[in-house]
Design a protein that fits this description.
The chain has helices at about 20-25, 30-45, 100-120, 135-145, 160-165, 180-185, 195-205, and strands at about 1-5, 10-15, 120-125, 150-155, 170-175, 190-195. With about 220 residues, the chain is α/β, with parallel strands linked by helices.
Length: about 220
């Protein structure tokens, strides 16, 4: 597969050949859905908590004597039906995290990148180098790339200048190549990659890693081959 490369002004300057194992696979919609749900679930803190009658403050002395008053029997002031008493069946801290095999996560990421490439929502920039935080230096290339709504800007390595410049742009987000994920790719309308980030992505999730096979172990000396 070939992708066009543009400069900061939006002009096509060249094209690059990308790995079909990363940008040209058939998108697996159920797998991408599972990866997105797992990532959103792992973000949940799950620290909602209420106190039971054994945890709230209050005396353990019986409120009044059992008989002779003509009133209902009452025990502890910490009972749930009393004011400031314990909560019955209230929320407790829990873990919402979901586990997903590494190979499935990687394939979901490849599916997301391939879906974006198929829809023409991936744009490759020739380069993006900043001497300091400059919002205009990032807003210009994003506008030239057609990122009028939401955009995910990906560079090969973490770049603080790009990060500081991108966070001032509404709907734009910056991630290094090794931190991209299925959710962020699908959440943003346009994915803008630098040429270096494309090669970094191919090195991480393409080539031999895309074959879903581990290399065969070397035969022991003197053993059967």
């Amino acid at each position: 597969m070939q992708l066009d490369v543009i400069n900061g002004a939006g002009e096509r300057v060249s094209s690059i050949v990308v790995d079909d194992a990363v940008f040209g696979v058939r998108p697996n919609l159920p797998l991408m859905h599972q990866a997105v749900l797992a990532q959103l679930a792992n973000r949940r803190v799950g620290n909602a908590n209420t106190k039971t009658r054994g945890e709230v403050e209050g005396s353990t002395v019986k409120i009044r004597k059992q008989k002779g008053l003509g009133r209902a029997r009452q025990g502890s002031i910490r009972a749930p039906h009393h004011r400031h008493g314990g909560i019955v069946f209230g929320p407790r801290p829990r873990d919402f995290s979901r586990e997903m095999p590494k190979r499935m996560r990687r394939q979901a990421l490849r599916s997301a990148l391939s879906a974006k490439a198929k829809d023409g929502e991936i744009v490759v920039l020739e380069a993006l180098k900043l001497d300091g935080p400059r919002t205009r230096a990032v807003a210009g290339p994003l506008k030239a790339a057609g990122a009028t709504r939401t955009a995910l800007l990906v560079t090969a390595d973490a770049d603080r200048n790009v990060l500081m410049s991108t966070r001032n742009i509404e709907g734009a987000m910056h991630l290094p190549a090794d931190r991209i994920n299925t959710y962020e790719i699908l959440r943003h309308r346009r994915v803008v990659l630098t040429v270096d980030s494309v090669r970094r992505i191919e090195a991480l999730w393409g080539g031999e890693r895309a074959n879903h096979r581990r290399p065969a172990p070397a035969a022991a000396a003197g053993g059967p081959v």
